[in-house]
Specification:
Blueprint: E1 6-12, E2 15-24, H1 29-41, E3 46-57, H2 59-74, E4 79-82, H3 86-94, E5 102-104, H4 107-114
Parallel strand pairs: 2-3, 3-4, 4-5
Antiparallel strand pairs: 1-2
Length: 120
């Protein structure tokens, strides 16, 4: 049974954090796009996708993440990820998403290492 997707945006120093919940599939697109736009509007140094409460990502969900990556790259803003299960870390490596975004095991590691140069 699919778990409805939700996303919330939080601001950390120099980083906007998107807390992702549920399944990332075609039904996630409106909420994911809206949350990313909200995060981007704050002009953070980088954006962190927190996958800690994501249960499932299908191929359409991967395509949505690729779209976010394209937006981030166009803006010159690093896109980071944390909280992925080992299975999805492997998927991100196989699809080469990990070549274009830094993966962290947890949010604190991402916040400690993922802030842009010169950030506190």
């Amino acid at each position: 049974m699919a778990v409805q997707f939700e996303a919330e945006v939080r601001q950390a120093p120099e980083v906007a954090v998107l807390d992702l919940h549920g399944d990332i599939n075609a039904f996630a697109e409106p909420a994911l796009t809206a949350a990313y736009s909200e995060a981007e509007a704050a002009h953070p140094g980088s954006i962190l996708l927190n996958f800690g409460d994501v249960h499932y990502i299908n191929s359409t969900g991967i395509a949505l993440i690729v779209g976010l990556l394209a937006r981030a790259r166009a803006a010159g803003r690093p896109l980071l990820a944390c909280g992925l299960s080992q299975h999805y870390v492997e998927i991100f490596n196989i699809t080469r998403l990990a070549d274009f975004m830094t993966l962290f095991p947890d949010e604190q590691s991402a916040l400690d290492q993922g802030a842009p140069q010169g950030a506190a």
